[in-house]
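Here is an idea for our session: we take a single protein and study its fold together. To get us started, please write out a protein record for me. Once you have written the record down, we can walk along the chain together.
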Amino acid sequence: MFRGFTLISLFFIVAGFLVSFLNYKTNFLQILFSSGYKRKEILKSSILTSLIPLLLMAITAVGINLVILYSRIPHQYINYPLDKIIFYQFCILLVAICYYFLGFFSGTILGQGITGALSLIGFVFGLELIKQNILDILNNVFNNILNNKNDGIYYQSFFVRFDTYSHWLILDGFVILTTFLFYFSAQYFYQRLSLEERGNYLLFPKFRFPISLVAGIFTAYSICGNIGLGSSSINLLIRYNILPGILVFVITFCFFMVLNNYKKIYEKIGMIVVKTNN
């Protein structure tokens, strides 16, 4: 129950990505655009027809899980009250919905299946690393304030680290805001989606450079964010964090720039080869 990235979140993010990506890839979107329907209505219809069945299945799975939990395990071995377990399942569903819209947003802006799926996997993995970086930092800060030694506990989720109703409500509020951010971002790009960019990695040329820049910073921090965190020396922290981070940033940024402009690079190489042959 207390894993960071749950199986429900995995189903939701895959569904969100496939719904938006396959509509674009299978020419279904072109038919809808030419039929005169408003893009907002198409977007809402795609979301409702996929998200509602997912929610119904997830709620059913949670209900079955709770029934099995309380029917097979003696109550004295369950150290959480029922109302708190139910509320935690609600929190898990909110996080899964947020991941659905992350997948939907990714499927809207990415035009290649394999590289798009790999990018989404890398982004989720990076989120888990950043989350663990933040949890480690918070754990060290709280231990320093309370003059406690490291308790050795490996927290996999903010909902476990801050195990109170009030903290859960704050975290739920942040998750809801992030969900709306992904939804309105998907809506913004969906209304500007052009079928002429089909086959490119990013379907919006104006955003290729800034997204490559953000991807480099994101990857650098997720991988190098807490290397040397336990060291008390500032010099060691700079030495073992900043330089690897810069290296990861440069590699990631160059990789995304090549991925976004591979057609132009291929054309220039072809022109050079032709001139050389002539």
